[in-house]
Description:
The chain is of the alpha+beta class. The chain has 2 helices and 8 strands. The chain is 18% helix and 36% strand. It has an 8-stranded antiparallel β-sheet with strand order 1-6-8-7-3-4-2-5. The longest helix is centred in the N-terminal third of the chain and has 14 residues, at 29-42. The protein is globular, with a radius of gyration of 15 Å.
Amino acid sequence: MNLINKPVIRIIDELSLVGFRVVCTGERYALEIPQASKRLADRLHEIKNVINKDLQYGAFMVDAKTVEDDGYWVMVEVESFENLPEDMDRLVIPSQKYAAAKYQGTNKGIFNAYEELHKWIDGQGHRRLVDRWHVEIFESWMNPDNLLVELLDTIE
């Protein structure tokens, strides 16, 4: 059974993101990320210059080389970093090439969806860049048992 739709290669321009960083032990991410997502949605009105209020972004490095890059960021895209709440994090992700696929299902099932995407990447002869930013674009995130997300796995 396929968990993801037919993957494609996408190049995405630089992203300017604002939101909350989540840092915890591995098993706690499935609990902490939805809480950060709700907190961001509740405070969305405080963020100026949001490009699309109906999307949330997740960002992470599979193999973070520094403490500053470790964790998971729950964010929205903004046009600029002007007049932002001081307790929110800012992140700029450079233009990158991704293997992209949509996934709909539970937050726990997303790991199996990534396995499918990684097999596709290998089968296409691409190489994953695990020390670069990987992105998830959520169209539906309020219910952890029914997410709709585009998985963007950074490739060479």
